[in-house]
Write the structure tokens for this entry.
Amino acid sequence: MRMLSKVTAVISRKPATSLRGSTTLEGSNYLYTMSTSAEQCFHTDEPCASSVSHISDALYVLGGKWKLALIFAISESPKRFGELQKILEGIGPKMLAKDLKELELNEFIVRKVYEGTPPRIVYEATPYSASLARVLFELKDWGMKHRETIRASMRRHQ
């Protein structure tokens, strides 16, 4: 075991009723507390390396500007290619097609082709994509708070 050279901050989610001390970030039904302590700074190299490896795996599959937003949009309801392009302003058709194929290969979405002229293609979320629900909610929540933090900072510096 070794002690990390810098202090590690730990963010924990607690019901709003159990708040005591610490720095808090307000969430929906929870308060997020950030604390640091000497006990939380000790760990072995193996769990750290393993954790980094798992995070790298997740980022390899979900990395990029559009993939998580695509999963979020499709998990709301099945979408056609054109609908996704409208929702994700700024994504080009090549990038959208590439990301949809990668998400399909990793079993987050399924591409369904319906007969007709022209054939109708719809992208639907798989049950496996539901495993990201908590991650997507937390990321959305953090993004809203971060945007507000940046706006407040810009107002202070004007």
The beta strands are 2-3, 10-15, 23-26, 30-35, 42-43, 109-114, 120-125. The two ends are 48 Å apart (CA to CA).
